[in-house]
Design a protein that fits this description.
The chain is an alpha/beta fold. Helices cover about 35% and strands about 15% of the residues. It has a 7-stranded parallel β-sheet with strand order 3-2-1-4-5-6-10, sandwiched between helices. The model has no long low-confidence stretch (mean pLDDT about 95).
């Protein structure tokens, strides 16, 4: 197949390109040239900014692809512009969306037909915690209108694995691997799912190979997996002997000024918890086969020790701050 990847040098897009090349496909990567300029010598690189000018993708009318993967569309205008620039030359269009598209009425084990959040004001393009999900809903709607039966929508939860610039899951793997007493934030029973970016990339290429339409959750493990389950799995996979988890009350942490930047994947001020409880059945029927969380943790730790991914935003809690909070918790 001839596959175009829009945004193919950073995290999710990078793993899609790796999987497509490994599968013997002819890959064109459209990117700004800022990340990994030496990546993928076997791919064709087309340099441009999707927000400024897509003419580089329309310069040669002979350019046609069997499929297009859009890994970095966050506002509907971006989807509209790709569709208008490529038309039928895009082939099947696979949009990377998110499980954040669902509204609060979703239940435990909800499927892809659960109610979605309302779309934002048409002029809204600022991506925040509040607008991220609604803007992705709007992206899906535009994609459906423009591509019809040629559309595949993939809705991942938290994506984890090598080259994760958010450092959210990586923080917990590295912290638990250091051992000792680990500050674990309540509520421990909050639902939480993740997906390894390598499994996600391979599966999305398979969806293209099989010419599959529809919307799919990219989540693992099954609904009902919790924060406590995740941290316990990491302890079992990477923790040295004697490592312990100390569960600290959410209100205590909030009163101490702790944020979800310091403790990533934690719902912070949302006392109801951020529930990731999606049913992966439809995706698994169509080929999603995620590796175990323990394997992801071990492999991620090895990859980060060999070639650390930059953490430009300083995600995670520094040891002195953690020790101070644990001491205050025990002394309360």
């Amino acid at each position: 197949m001839r596959i175009l990847v829009v945004g193919g040098t950073r995290f999710v897009g990078r793993h899609v390109v790796e999987a497509a090349l490994a599968g013997g496909h002819e890959v064109t990567v459209f990117h700004r040239g800022r990340t990994g300029p030496d990546l993928f010598p076997d791919a064709r690189h087309v340099i441009g900014d999707r927000n400024a000018d897509l003419s580089v993708l329309t310069a040669d009318p002979a350019d046609r692809w069997d499929a297009t993967v859009d890994a970095c569309a966050y506002v509907p205008r971006q989807v509209q512009q790709v569709a208008e620039a490529l038309g039928d030359r895009a082939g099947r269009y696979l949009l990377v969306s998110t499980t954040s598209v669902y509204d609060a009425s979703r239940g435990l084990g909800h499927d892809e037909d659960a109610p979605l959040v309302p779309v934002p004001d048409p002029d809204t393009e600022e991506v925040t915690d509040q607008t991220y999900g609604p803007l992705k809903v709007a992206c899906e709607q535009i994609a459906s209108r423009m591509f019809g039966s040629r559309l595949t929508v993939v809705r991942p939860t938290y994506v984890v694995g090598p080259h994760d610039y958010t450092h959210r899951f990586t923080y917990w793997v590295e912290r638990i691997a250091r051992g000792g007493e680990v500050l674990a934030p309540e509520p421990r029973g909050c639902g939480l799912q993740v997906i390894d970016a390598r499994d996600l990339g391979r599966w999305m290429v398979r969806l293209l190979e099989d010419d599959v339409s529809g919307s799919f959750h990219a989540v693992s493990p099954d609904a009902g997996f919790t924060v406590a389950d995740l941290l316990s799995a990491l302890v079992g996979a990477v923790a040295p002997e004697g490592t312990t988890l100390t569960w600290v009350d959410q209100r205590f942490l909030l009163d101490a000024g702790v944020t979800d930047h310091e403790l990533p994947l934690w719902p912070a001020g949302d006392t109801s918890g951020v529930e990731e409880t999606a049913d992966p059945t439809r995706a698994r029927v169509n080929g999603l086969a995620p590796r175990s969380l323990g394997v992801t943790a071990v492999e991620l730790l090895a990859a980060e020790r060999e070639d650390p991914t930059p953490n430009p935003h300083g995600t995670g809690m520094v040891p002195a701050r953690e020790a101070e909070l644990l001491a205050a918790w025990h002394a309360r």
